[in-house]
Amino acid sequence: MKKILLLLAVLFAQFSFAQEDTDVTKKRANEIGIEFLGLIDGQTLLTYERSFGRKFTGLIGGGTKSEEGLLNISGIDGPTIKTGGLSYSGYKLLLEGRYYLKDHVNGRATGFYLGLYTKFSSFSSDLTGLYTNSEGEDFNFNFDAGIDVLSIGFMVGYKLPLSKRFALDFLIAGPGTGNYSFNLKNNSDDLPDEFFEDLSDALESVGIFDIIDSDFEFNRNNRKSVFNTVSFRYALSLKYNF
Q: What's the predicted TM-score (pTM) here?
């Protein structure tokens, strides 16, 4: 009986060590994540990243943007056009290809990385306010505004492992170029021709549009404005590996 118990103990120990070794070497090449910074502005962006080979990964993502958020775009307060604060809602889609400087460990990608990204955003907003022409006449205006942005760029980042499963992903810099498309649907009474020129000039001085050197060219016959300019991308994400 003692020999049988001893043999069972040896077999159990071997099985336990073999199982532990299997768990350690099991590849975990998948990660899901959520971006933190966008939550401040009502944005929810979820991502899925998959490792390929020893240093490459691919990432896809998507999410929504609600009108609620701590960050607001200030309205227009010019000599001819005045509006309230500008809020917007919509969605984002994301595609990335990454190259990590060090080999994946058990399929998990960590450390510094370089990569390329493409991002598509589509938002809608109400644009309402008061317009005063050169003769001092007042006009109320009400537009449904649509904004589509397609960005392509280069990125540098670092993924910091916090445990066997969790990591913080810092996208340090993401310079690129963006194609911006703006559409206006008029819901108000007839407006003078000069309104559209004044609106183009006023929008170029608003918040983010001033930073990206925008070039609006609205007129009565063409209420769509398209231009290319610089774009920026940065992110802080919590990742879970499995």
A: 0.76
